[in-house]
Design goal:
The protein contains 1 helix and 11 strands, in the order H-E-E-E-E-E-E-E-E-E-E-E. The chain is an alpha/beta fold. It has a 4-stranded parallel β-sheet.
Length: 124
């Protein structure tokens, strides 16, 4: 048996032991950061990426989803291909386009001289 194959088998065995102990169903193809808290009975789909997040008890996350800096409640269902990105948009402006509230947006287009809306806040 090749050394790399043996290493992969051992890594999967350790992974499954950890997941089984916490009653988790986590795909070996998912990437979960060290600052992720899983409350229990979670299911994380393949190719999903979690970072700096708290996932409530019984919540499952579909394949290919990416959640960074999220707090997800108990018994939630996150569909496949969900991406949570940073930044917010106002809902009381003429448009959600940054030209209406940000003079410094990379698009270069703006109709205001000063910042009218805080775009990057931590979502709790």
């Amino acid at each position: 048996m090749k050394v790399l194959e043996l290493f992969k088998m051992r890594a999967r065995a350790v992974y499954y032991r950890i997941a089984k102990r916490q009653d988790q169903m986590i795909s070996v193809k998912a990437r979960i950061g060290s600052r992720v808290e899983l409350e229990g009975r979670n299911s994380i789909g393949k190719y999903s990426v979690l970072s700096h997040s708290k996932i409530g008890y019984g919540t499952y996350i579909g394949d290919r989803s990416a959640l960074m800096g999220c707090k997800v409640g108990k018994f939630c269902s996150i569909a496949p291909d969900v991406k949570r990105i940073s930044g917010t948009h106002p809902i009381s402006f003429a448009s959600t386009h940054p030209a209406f509230y940000s003079p410094n947006h990379p698009s270069g287009l703006h109709f205001v001289k000063e910042q009218k809306f805080e775009e990057y806040v931590y979502a709790d």
